[in-house]
Write a structure and sequence with these properties.
- The strands form two sheets. The protein has a six-stranded mixed beta sheet, with helices on both faces. A three-stranded antiparallel beta sheet has the order 2-1-4, covered by helices on one side.
- It is about 35% helix and about 25% strand.
- The longest helix is centred in the C-terminal third of the chain and has 14 residues, at about 180-190.
- The protein is an alpha/beta fold.
- The model has no long low-confidence stretch (mean pLDDT about 90).
- The chain has one domain: 3-Layer(aba) Sandwich (Rossmann fold), CATH 3.40.50.
């Protein structure tokens, strides 16, 4: 296969059962370069979130391989894997998962804390990102003082703080009304132009905006 930042080859995932193994992923292949955007669609239970979890190194495959930036993350152990994940992969979920006791600024800084002490440059970048998502006046606000759309914008800023090579989104606009969802999608797409972006969504409108669309069908990822 040609060189690329994300290469997924014959990826499989199955779970043991008392009878036959439950096969969730069957030989998934994927090739993406920086700046490419992929929307993964399909019915609930088709394996979309499982694929996202494996690409994010939150779960391990039963077979096949994943290489991100030339690194096989599943060859790393313990702290090495955690550090790779923190430095290289950003996550945005349907629920923002902000810490309620922390301000917007502190929530954005959290991924930097995972890598060690934060610096003044980290703080400047966090403030800059919050400004880019339209929250320059909300940096000291707690999540309870923000709207749902504002909380999701904080989550976008947090996901980008470490300049990830891969940005994974699981229903990033699923809890938002149509107008707010469009605003969040605009920000997500505009701020991730140099990143590999993969989004799982049930929204046909959002999937169309990603440019490339594939469907999970019977554990396989096919163009659609």
């Amino acid at each position: 296969m040609p060189t690329a930042d994300l290469i997924v080859s014959e990826l499989r995932k199955e779970y043991p059962t008392p009878t036959q193994p439950l096969v969730v992923l069957r030989g998934v292949n994927l090739l993406l370069s920086p700046g490419e955007r992929l929307a993964v669609v399909g019915p609930s239970g088709s394996g979309k979130s499982t694929l996202l979890n494996i690409l994010g190194t939150l779960d391990s495959p039963s077979g096949g391989s994943v290489h991100l930036g030339g690194v096989n993350p599943f060859s790393l152990l313990g702290k090495e894997l955690a550090r790779f994940r923190s430095r290289t992969i950003g996550f945005i979920f349907q629920d923002h998962h902000l810490l309620p006791q922390c301000t917007a600024l502190e929530n954005v800084l959290l991924p930097r804390l995972a890598l060690g002490k934060t610096t003044e440059e980290d703080r400047r970048r966090s403030v800059e990102l919050l400004g880019q998502v339209g929250l320059a006046e909300r940096v000291t606000h707690l999540p309870a003082e923000l709207s749902g759309g504002e909380r999701q914008r904080v989550a976008i800023a947090r996901a980008l703080i470490n300049r990830p090579a891969l940005l994974l989104c699981d229903e990033p606009t699923g809890n938002l009304d149509a107008k707010t969802a469009d605003t969040v999608a605009d920000l997500l797409l505009s701020l991730s132009r140099e990143t590999i972006l993969i989004g799982v969504t049930h929204s046909a409108h959002l999937a169309e905006r990603f440019g490339r669309r594939m469907q999970m069908a019977d554990g396989e990822l096919v163009d659609g």
